[in-house]
Amino acid sequence: MFLVLTMPAFGGGARATGLAARLHAEPGQPLRRGDPLIDLVVDVSGGLARDCPPVSTNRIIVQEALWLRQFHVLPGERIKPGDRIASFSVERDAPDEPPVREPRIEIATILSHSDWWSEAE
Q1: Which entry of 27, 35, 39, 93 is 20 to 30 Å from 110 by CA?
Q2: pLDDT, tens digit, 9 for 90 and up, residues 47-60
Q3: How far apart are CA 21 and CA 33, in angstroms?
Q4: Distance of CA 97 to CAs 2, 26, 79, 81, 100, Å?
Q5: Which of 121, 116, 109 is nearest to 56 (CA)?
Q6: Phi then psi dihedrals of residue 14, to 5 deg
Q7: Which domains are delineated in the chain?
Q8: Which of 6, 16, 23 is nearest to 87 (CA)?
Q9: pTM score, whole prediction
Q10: How far is CA 34 from CA 4, 11, 51, 69, in A?
């Protein structure tokens, strides 16, 4: 069974865009429930003036056992709601087929922009 993760519609709905900040996995890698997949910097302003910064950093966390087949984005790339982020399969050597659903995920908002989530580990 194949699955595909698309960019969720954050607070700004269809206007919210994201920036792929960091990929936490490699194609071909098994993922377990709770593994981080990608960090996104999301701009929910949609070009509108706000009283607070309209940007948040969010980590997408996998909530089921999967095999990462492919990332459809690169670090630094802009993503719109509905754009493909990654493809997965339930079995390691599953033959290619059309995706049947989105994977189960959790989105955690990162409140601090400290160095702990940057490229340097």
Answers
A1: 27
A2: 555 566 667 889 99
A3: 21
A4: 6, 20, 24, 23, 9
A5: 109
A6: -65, -15
A7: 2-114 (2.40.50.100)
A8: 6
A9: 0.82
A10: 18, 23, 34, 18
